[in-house]
Amino acid sequence: LGVVLAAVLPGLLASDLSLGTERLSWVLPPLLLLAATATFSQVSSGSVPLPVTPMPLLQSLRCALNAIAFRRLLTIFIANGIAAALPATLFLFFVADVLGAASAGGALLAVYFVAGAASLPLWVKLSVRFGRVRAWGLAMLLAMLAFAGAGSLGHGDVAGFAVICLASGLALGADLALPAALAADLGERHGQAGTCFGAWNLAAKLNLALAAGLALPLLDSMGYQPGNTEGLGALTFTYALLPLVFKLLAATLLWRWRNSLEIRP
Q1: What is the pLDDT of residue 48?
Q2: Structural contact between residues 191 and 145, judged by C-beta atoms closer than 8 angstroms
Q3: What pTM does this model have?
Q4: What angle, rounded to 10 degrees, do the helices at 105-118 and 120-130 form?
Q5: Neighbours of 23 (CB within 10 A)
Q6: Do residues 238 and 226 make contact, with C-beta atoms less than 8 angstroms apart?
Q7: Which of 122, 187, 257, 259 is within CB 3.0–4.6 Å of 196 for a Cys-Cys bond?
Q8: Which residue has the higher pLDDT, 59 or 125?
């Protein structure tokens, strides 16, 4: 709900995206206060004893990363995460300069995230029937088809891009649920659930940083400047086609290591 609100409110608050984003900054603090109040009102004041004596941080990380299955899953997660973070970083540039529809950015983002949330039950059912690895691999295939389709779009192709947002949003549902479930199982198997959870979230943030650090300097070196018609081919390549490389790498590794990643009953 928060992500969808952040996507659509700038367009609702003003016709100009920059002004709408500025006004959004006045809406977020009271929403944050409400969310914090709701959260802390549900936190117990009682102390909860730790079941075991915690390890030192570095020792705990070494133990978690010594598990080859978790290292493999983390590698797949980083490759897949960069593939998702690249278009997320460049989404508004692509909509504004390639499609020429800056005002539609919020609605298109809403389609993407709503599709992701709505598809979660479907991916859970598929994972129960076929296994989490196979279900996640199917989602990667769907995302690759969507990215490939985005590479053929041009000015005014908003309807076509909305279909692509819907398809890639459906794939997002699997990314939200299945990799973390696999990581939780592996963490429990090796008695390092908390450490695996921490390393997993660190990798998620690292994906966003790597995507921005890769995409923006690359686009600058290829001559793209926001708001100009030059360098649009470079933007399309970095937004739609470069993620295909990372997604294909992630899918290949997932299939190669499938037998070591999933705990089946």
Answers
A1: 63
A2: no
A3: 0.83
A4: 40
A5: 15
A6: no
A7: 187
A8: 125
